[in-house]
């Protein structure tokens, strides 16, 4: 499929605006935000999640700059290449924002071939294995995306069961990181 026909999907809860990032929550508000996220969600944010996510985002930003990217934001907005019923199913009442891939500028958009925590190897000390495929162990500029590459469901090994998914490798999928507000500005005010 040509890149011009591909889309990126950001799944979020219906009761929340899209493109919120836990790394941007003040530490004093974090417990309340995490408690509210636990209701109506199958997402798991254990005690190690936020430090791991912050370290991953710092490493991803560093790698993106090293690869020639020009991030504007400190923390990215996240998407999945195409659509994933598994990701949408993490929320009781899911909503999605879909953006044509052609509208995401390569200078501010990176991707990993699976979840960025897994791809960058920062979860290994918690027992989250790195993918065997070397291609799935890095961060790339959007203009390096092979449009003929197949994408998976995003679901964890073991099928559609969400129980314990955070400890299993996710099926092959492409996570997209947008390091700018501009392409999604109309959605940020919702």
Your description of this structure?
It comes from Microlunatus capsulatus. This is Chorismate lyase. With 190 residues, this protein is α+β, with helices and mostly antiparallel strands. The chain has one domain. Helix content is 22%, strand content 15%. It has 5 helices and 6 strands; from the N terminus they run βααβαββαββα. Strands 3-1-2-6-4-5 form a 6-stranded antiparallel beta sheet, with no helix packed on it. About 8% of the residues have low confidence.
Total count of helical runs of at least 4 residues: 5
Radius of gyration: 16 Å
Please estimate the helix content.
10-25%
User: Structural class of the helix and strand makeup?
Assistant: alpha+beta
Largest sheet: 6 strands, antiparallel
First and last CA, distance = 32 Å
Overall mean confidence score, pLDDT: 80
Can you list the strand order of the major beta sheet? 3-1-2-6-4-5
Question: Which helices and strands appear, and what pairs or packs with what?
Answer:
Layout: E1 7-13, H1 27-38, H2 49-66, E2 77-81, H3 85-88, E3 94-100, E4 109-112, H4 116-119, E5 140-141, E6 175-178, H5 185-188
Antiparallel strand pairs: 1-2, 1-3, 2-6, 4-5, 4-6
What are the salient characteristics of this protein?
190 residues, alpha+beta, six-stranded antiparallel sheet, 5 helices, 6 strands, Chorismate lyase
In short:
The protein has helices at residues 27-38, 49-66, 85-88, 116-119, 185-188, and strands at 7-13, 77-81, 94-100, 109-112, 140-141, 175-178. By secondary structure, the chain is an alpha+beta fold.
